[in-house]
Write a structure and sequence with these properties.
single chain, about 150 residues, alpha+beta, two-stranded antiparallel sheet, two-stranded antiparallel ribbon
């Protein structure tokens, strides 16, 4: 059996879509992405803004917000979040920003992130983040349009 390049590419894209959307039920639990009961895999969402990198949160610095437990690396970051959670919470409930472009949800890895216009966007993987970065303004426009419907379905 021979496979044309066009069919190979189409199949690869379909598989990629299935791989991303296949994580929908594994860890997604509600409006915010959670893994092991913690938002964004237990990473400190404020640290992305203040330290410019992903930093693992600590159980001693935690709060519940919008039905999800959030961890922080310091008391200072915890208090910053408590005073302005919408400023620091990731977009699209912390689900993969690239998947949201297509109106889907997927898990994230803390290392695949961007801050654009003061907003945190997370992605499924570093490879997916590369695709996200190809046209961030367009991708944000598309994802922003799809998020309200997806959010209602969670």
């Amino acid at each position: 059996m021979t496979i044309s390049r066009r069919h190979f590419v189409a199949g690869s894209l379909a598989f990629t879509g299935l791989a991303i959307s296949g994580h929908r039920s594994a860890e997604a639990r509600g409006v915010f992405f959670e893994a092991r009961g913690k938002a964004i895999r237990g990473y400190d969402t404020v640290a992305y803004f203040k330290a410019g990198k992903p930093v693992k949160g600590r159980n001693q610095f935690q709060t519940d917000w919008n039905g999800t437990t959030w961890l922080f690396s310091s008391e200072e970051n915890l208090q910053a979040f408590k005073s302005s959670p919408n400023r620091f919470a990731p977009q699209y409930g912390g689900y993969c920003a690239w998947a949201m472009v297509n109106g889907d949800i997927a898990s994230i890895v803390p290392e695949a992130w961007d801050i654009v216009d003061g907003k945190l966007y997370l992605n499924f993987s570093l490879g997916v983040r590369r695709r996200w970065r190809r046209d961030i303004p367009r991708h944000i426009r598309l994802a922003d349009g799809r998020w309200p419907r997806v959010r209602q379905s969670l």
